[in-house]
Amino acid sequence: MSSSSLPRSSRFETWRLFVIYALILLVLTALLGRLLSLQVFGSQNWTLRAVDNYTREISSPAPRGIIYDRNNYILARNIASYDLTITPANIPDDDADIQRIYRDISALTGVPINHGTLEEAKLYAPCVEGPGIAQLVELGDSLAPYTPVKIKCNVSEEVARLVQERSIDWPGVGIEVNPIRDYPTGSLTADVIGFLGPIPAALEEQLTAKGFVANRDKVGYAGIELSMQDVLAGQNGSRVVQVDVAGKELRNIEPPKAAVPGYNLTLTIDTRLQQAAEASLLYEINYWNMYFGKTRISSGVVIAMNPKTGEILAMVSYPTYENNRMARFIPGYYYEQLNQDPRHPLLNNAIQSEYPPGSVFKLSAANGALNEGVVTTSQIIQTPGKLELCEQFTPNQPCGPNNTRPFVDWIYDKNPDGFGQLDFYHCIAYSSNVCFYKLGGGYGNEIKNGGLGIFRLGEYARALGYGAASGIELPGEVDGLIPDPQWKRIHQAENWSTGDTYIATVGQGYVLATPLQVLMSGATMANDGKLMQPTIIKSIEDSEGKVQTVWFNPQDFSLWVPSVDENSGREAWKNLNDGTIVDTLPAGSYQISPFVPNMKWDITKDPRIAEYQCRGGNCQKTGQMKVVDPSVVKNVQIGMRMAVTDPRGTLHNIYTKDYPLPIAVAGKTGTAEYCDDVALKAQRCQFGSWPTHSWTISYAPYDDPEIVIVAFEYNGGEGASVAAPVVARVMKAYFELKAIDLAGNGG
Amino acid sequence: MRGLSWRNFDFLLLGAMVLASAFGAMMIHSAIAGNLDLAGYDVRQIYFALAGVAVIILLASIDYRYWLSIYLPIYIVMMLFLISLSGLGQAAFGAQRWFQVGVLFVQPTEFAKIVVILILARYFEKSQNDPRDLKWLAKSLAWVWGLVIWILLQPNLSNVIVTMVIWAGMVWMNGIGIRQLLWLGLAVILLAFIAFPFLQPYQQARVLNFLFPDPNARHGAVYNVQQALIAIGSGGLFGKGYGHGTQTQLRFLKVRHTDFIFSATAEEFGIIGAIIIILIEAFIIWRCIRAAQKARDVSGAMIALGVALLIFFQGAANIAVNLNLIPVSGLPLPFISYGGSGLMSLMIGIGLVESVVMRHKELDF
After folding, report:
1. Using CB atoms within 10 A of its CB, is residue A332 exposed (0-12), middle (13-18) or buried (19+)?
2. Which residue in the set B271, B285, B298 is minimally distant from A35, CB to CB?
């Protein structure tokens, strides 16, 4: 014990102890400094992150609006789809119990208990078959144990009920109900209704800001589902909940916001007439394709409209697609098949395709020629079988054998002498090409001053609805084309020739129109010059059935509802898409709900025709605008009526022999020569062997029209014999349905 | 038993320790709330603490020199325990860090640290008049590494570092020359670079994650430390209240009853609670160093100093991990973290310190 006798101070050198103390103090200071920086100075930021940790926003999907036809027949609805799920956190602890549940579920669904490894299971998207139940649950358990794992998607209702029934035996096993869009009428209305798809990446940011959930919510991809997305979608509800680290919901942090269901839509479509139109078109197409032993007519369109209100009653585009196949997800092979089909089944040919209108376009020339005084109703026009006309690219180009071309009437093959002497009415009724060549392009002394001319023809065509999108509430509408010399210089790098005018007058050459535009031209004539806005929407109601006031701007497809300007307190309009408020609606908007007939213009009252001063083929605008004289419209109507009543009229046989109707019908046929990529390949773009589209337009009753129908068949041949029967059958169906409705209402 | 005087028993030290343990048990209770697997751990910790107090009184009443006299059997038995847990033992018994004794899991490593303190205390007592040369240094190191090598082979790098810090502190206090110290420091730095490739992959990852954190790794390796920082930072000045820490109660904070119990405390009691914990620990350390100063011989002083260093280094390292100042180590917070072996070994240490402080006067009539 010698050491114990030493003085205490000598045992440790004091400075060495100080070093130890200093080190400890240094460490304590560092810890305190760090604590201060975290808890005092950085506290706000860390608190935000703590809140972020336990806060989760849960979106409850809003039911999408239902789409009805005009008779409240459902065209689009939501049906339940059942997914069988297992919540990893809720399965029993005992391995034997787990295995028993897995065995039962496997037997019920056919999903194997074990398949592949956990690593492989990570590569599968939900609902894709591959991994076994055990792998799916294990994966889910490691990610978010309280989130149900989808074991089998779209199980039958029986399986769903069975799972609910046995929920006590199978803890953790559940059924998730998802709304799936269902289209009871399927392909019959697919071109009008459209289909849904996942939120595209380009819109994800914008839509997420509006409460949509990517990979869950769907948006319209085509048709009404696309154009009316803003009213159909509704507003997702949301809950802000506190969750623990496993994702278990503990409580609501904020009062939950309930989902606002989307508005329901009632369309102007009459499904029965739609069905009749489709059947009529398919019957004709199949008949001719069978007759020729090949697919000759590859596509077609039928549209029926009330000319006085603009309500579209039927709109059929063939070929089409089955939108129910897109309900759950868009199958790649099916979409690819549709996309590569040269007939473009995904296009609504009624508005998204443009074709040469052919002789139905003569209505524009007839109005123009009579209104401009090019011809009078008493004038007799010589109509031989064909005209030898001089093709001049400049006014002073000399005419000789080199540039003389034959311009043939459609009767030439049957009767090379042509129609002979015709007045204005019979020119329309017989659809004489030679007559309209003369009216449009002039003919020596008979039709002076170069006839109507391409500029003035364009004015009257536009007045009837050609050359611009109609503004209907369907997306992807094209403008059609009314050519003029300037257009030709830009797009064809060639001067306008006199022949171009002749050809354009009969709706061929460069003239292009959508079937809906052709229908509008007929409807304008039927409605005494008043062009009604074509519409497919009859009303928009909220989920309680209250009709909403909604306006539609066809320029950007925005939808507007009445609102109040918060600043000024005045009445204003709110954009349903982005919520902007304006005092006055954008020009061109029209009310779509509740339904009111919207007149685009009245050609007999609204001056829409620009006046031209023409001298030797050169035409200048005078700056004056004029109207079409009501008598002109009346005279063209007489011509259209004579197409049915005159024994040699183009529509005479159809409405008196083939499909006799006790109602006065008027109309116009068209056989439009065309040359497109398909025809070029078949080497048919040669004189005498040009393929032709069939057109027919009819309205009835003649005195007080309530229905106007157009039919179009691609490569159909003669309009009077291929398209006219389609129109006649739909016409017949319309009046039969009307009689049924009247009887029903009366009883 | 000569000179036993309970008047010299350091009641403040015992009091601080009991306070820390009680606070620890309370925080464990909060941390494990709602976790069925860990249910009852808070009560177990109280039992350990009570048993520990009994051990302290028992050890205080026994002269610490008694243990130094039987150092060799203690050393050999501890070595055998450690060998059985090391690579050699794993071949025979499978990989474990503990022995199961009834319902208890005993971690010999925790007790090995006390044995290291005892062995070094005996060595420096015996060699107090030797010249402070390389031989003196090497022999002390040899005694330590007889045990530590098996801890390194477990592998348990953190506890190897703890023992080396204790050794370094004792060497320092026993008068190592400045030049030797510099050479030693250089050797440690060199060793760190040479040893890095031989570390276990998870240990390398921890060090790398600390030095070069990946900003995109949310659920990756930095997750636990990130959650600890969120817990501490969001605690603010006064905390969210006992049982109301969202990070702790909603289990975003991991291993919150052991490694990250400091974060749980800082979240629920704020910087006030965090500073109180640091102050209690500092007070305990100070009382141990005070005992070392009062000790009647070198071995007593070394025992007290060793225990002080053990508590200081483990505490500082644990808090520094919580504050993301050093890489994750897995060292518990003395007296606060859950863990029977850790608490018991520290209690044994405190018992030895009390034994030293009670016998600081040669004669006391």
Report:
1. exposed
2. B271
* Region of A186 on the Ramachandran plot (φ > 0 left; ψ -120 to 50 alpha; else beta): left
User: What are the boundaries of each domain within chain A?
Assistant: 3-41, 78-184, 274-335+349-529+604-746, 537-602
* Alpha carbon A351 to chain centroid, angstroms: 9
Q: Would you list the domain boundaries of chain B?
A: 6-358
Which residues in chain B are contacts of A43 at CB distance < 8 A? 233-237
Query: How far off is chain A from B80, nearest CA to CA, in Å?
Result: 32
Contact A32 B278 (CB under 8 A): yes
| pLDDT values of chain B reduced to their tens digit, one per residue, 365 residues | 455 678 888 999 999 999 999 999 999 999 988 777 788 889 999 999 999 999 999 999 999 999 999 999 999 999 998 888 765 555 444 445 566 666 667 788 899 999 999 999 999 999 988 888 888 989 999 999 999 988 887 777 888 899 999 999 999 999 888 888 888 889 888 988 888 887 777 777 777 766 666 555 444 457 888 899 999 999 999 999 999 999 999 988 888 888 899 999 999 999 999 999 999 999 999 999 999 988 988 999 999 999 999 999 999 999 999 999 988 888 899 999 998 889 999 999 999 999 999 887 654 44
Asked if B316 and A54 come within 8 Å (Cβ–Cβ), the reply is no
What's the ipTM?
0.91
User: What are the beta bridge partners of residue A512?
Assistant: A481
Cα–Cα distance, A75 to A270 (Å, whole number) = 11
CATH fold of A274-335+349-529+604-746: Beta-lactamase (3.40.710)
Q: How far apart are CA B93 and CA B81, in angstroms?
A: 12
Q: For residue A152, with 0-12 CB atoms within 10 Å meaning exposed, 13-18 middle and 19 or more buried, which class applies?
A: buried
Kindly list the residues from chain B whose CB atom is less than 8 angstroms away from the CB atom of residue A14: none
Q: Which residues of A touch B270 (CB under 8 A)?
A: 39
Q: A111 with A133: CB under 8 angstroms?
A: yes
Contact A245 B278 (CB under 8 A): no
A252 φ/ψ angles, rounded to the nearest 5 degrees: -80, 130
Minimal Cβ distance to B172: which of A16, A242, A245: A16
Is the overall model pTM greater than 0.90, yes or no? no
Contact A80, A180 (CB under 8 A): yes
Q: Rounded to an integer, what distance in angstroms lies between the CA atom of residue A636 and that of residue A634? A: 6
